[in-house]
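Severity: low
Component: inverse-folding endpoint
Summary: output formatting inconsistent between runs
Steps to reproduce: submit the following structure tokens with default settings.
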């Protein structure tokens, strides 16, 4: 209370209390106050407390939806296509010489061994690198997190998939205990230092979902473990499913669609009933006799008894509002999963401008996920692989290379698809001519490797020159041809100037 309210309290305590309470209400945010239409639901728990209570249930529900819900399957499939793609995250080595130029010899050597290692990069030997990256992404988004153990050097019972002694072991989040005893230093299976930086991970030796004896744990140093988690809050140690905000909506939508389908099936099976008249007109014997009516086009039913009438059961299905309602729910689901409505609903109606606007906006969301994946998975794996390749003396470092630039690389994923290739290609051409972009950027935008495209282009041009082939797409003519072409232009211009003079004479 302020001084005025204290003075009022000496005369009327109730009045002073009401005045003080009303002044307090006026000074707060409206949304913080519960009202008849607003319950003001609050969350006052820490991030790790929420995760401990909900993460396991959320990922189990998400896995069930990934198995049985076509919408969730489509969302995760589309995210795989847009974030990772069919070729995986492309890595273009950029080691520099001391003069700042890219050492193409070393870059080509790295690309060669990286492609060989990418065939069998993990301990089971079942997945290629692009396939494994897509599965890692799906696990991360569906379950909320994924773990990768980096296996280096000679290990008993393990044969690496290439000449470079380096492999990966992908682990689902179940391998790291969620309900371990948290003592401040170990939180949900992850050991932290005084600055809350992970220094070690507790991992089950066996899959707890498939083995009855999974109590035995091993400890893996943080330098040999990668952890990609979907986090929403600071200080959050473990991840939650990306679908956490749309699980209820998608589950309800599936049940509603099933109900509508059942109603439509019932409506498709035509059902008739006989409405009888006065009960005094019927006796017990006539009621037990079975009657049949032949239904055919133009049929006339003339054997009804007095007071009887034939009616049809009409369920008004299929529901004419189902499509618009479903579209609205899918738009909300797209907003909660960094997806686009068109990709989820497979609805591509609209103008070029509308489709491109949606594609541009949705691809920014894909780029955010791609950046997280590259930062936590692709970049650390590439750098550790290159360290092992150099340590094993499989990749030789030339003396002119700057060692500080050994790990330089360009990481790129799927490019935004072109809705109208002619317009897109023209736009890139004008940007390159104006100095606003490079040829490499244009090639990456079409989903290809600039170094590979240029290498193939050089081979084609040289082969065409050797065989005397000329095409309108080959603009790299020899100097002699260009000079002859320029001289022909000059001759034509001279002839055009002389013709008017002759006409005047």
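Observed output (run 2 of 3):
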């Amino acid at each position: 209370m302020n001084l005025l309210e204290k003075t009022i309290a000496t005369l009327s305590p109730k009045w002073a209390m009401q005045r003080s309470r009303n002044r307090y209400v006026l000074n707060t945010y409206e949304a913080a106050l519960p009202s008849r239409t607003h319950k003001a639901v609050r969350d006052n728990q820490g991030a790790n407390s929420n995760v401990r209570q909900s993460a396991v249930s959320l990922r189990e529900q998400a896995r069930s939806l990934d198995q049985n819900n076509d919408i969730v399957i489509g969302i995760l499939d589309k995210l795989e296509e847009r974030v990772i793609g069919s070729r995986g995250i492309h890595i273009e080595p950029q080691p520099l010489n001391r003069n700042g130029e890219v050492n193409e010899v070393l870059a080509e050597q790295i690309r060669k061994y990286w492609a060989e290692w990418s065939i069998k990069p993990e301990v089971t030997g079942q997945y290629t690198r692009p396939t494994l990256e897509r599965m890692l992404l799906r696990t991360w988004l569906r379950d909320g997190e994924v773990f990768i153990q980096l296996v280096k050097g000679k290990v008993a019972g393990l044969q690496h998939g290439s000449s470079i002694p380096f492999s990966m072991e992908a682990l689902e989040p179940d391998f790291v205990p969620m309900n371990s005893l948290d003592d401040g230093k170990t939180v949900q299976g992850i050991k932290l230092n005084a600055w809350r930086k992970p220094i070690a991970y507790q991992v089950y030796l066996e899959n707890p979902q498939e083995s009855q004896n999974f109590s035995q744990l091993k400890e893996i140093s943080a330098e040999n473990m990668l952890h990609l988690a979907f986090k929403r809050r600071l200080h959050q140690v473990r991840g939650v499913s990306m679908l956490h905000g749309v699980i209820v909506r998608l589950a309800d939508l599936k049940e509603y669609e099933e109900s509508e389908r059942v109603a439509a099936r019932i409506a498709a099976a035509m059902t008739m009933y006989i409405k009888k008249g006065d009960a005094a007109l019927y006796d017990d014997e006539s009621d037990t006799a079975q009657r049949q009516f032949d239904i055919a086009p133009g049929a006339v039913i003339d054997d009804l008894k007095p007071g009887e009438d034939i009616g049809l059961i009409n369920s008004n299905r299929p529901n004419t509002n189902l499509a618009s309602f479903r579209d609205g729910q899918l738009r909300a689901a797209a907003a909660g999963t960094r997806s686009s409505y068109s990709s989820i609903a497979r609805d591509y109606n609209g103008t070029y401008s509308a489709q491109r606007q949606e594609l541009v906006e949705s691809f920014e969301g894909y780029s955010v996920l791609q950046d997280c994946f590259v930062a936590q998975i692709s970049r650390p794996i590439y750098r550790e692989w290159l360290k092992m390749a150099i340590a094993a003396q499989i990749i030789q470092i030339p003396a002119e290379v700057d060692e500080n630039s050994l790990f330089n690389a360009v990481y790129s994923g799927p490019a935004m698809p072109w809705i109208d290739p002619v317009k897109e290609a023209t736009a890139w051409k004008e940007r390159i001519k104006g100095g606003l972009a490079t040829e490499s950027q244009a090639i990456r935008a079409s989903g290809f490797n600039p170094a590979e495209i240029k290498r193939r282009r050089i081979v084609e041009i040289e082969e065409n020159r050797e065989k005397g082939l000329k095409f309108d797409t080959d603009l790299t003519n020899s100097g002699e041809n260009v000079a002859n072409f320029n001289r022909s232009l000059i001759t034509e211009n001279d002839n055009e100037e002389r013709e008017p003079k002759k006409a005047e004479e």
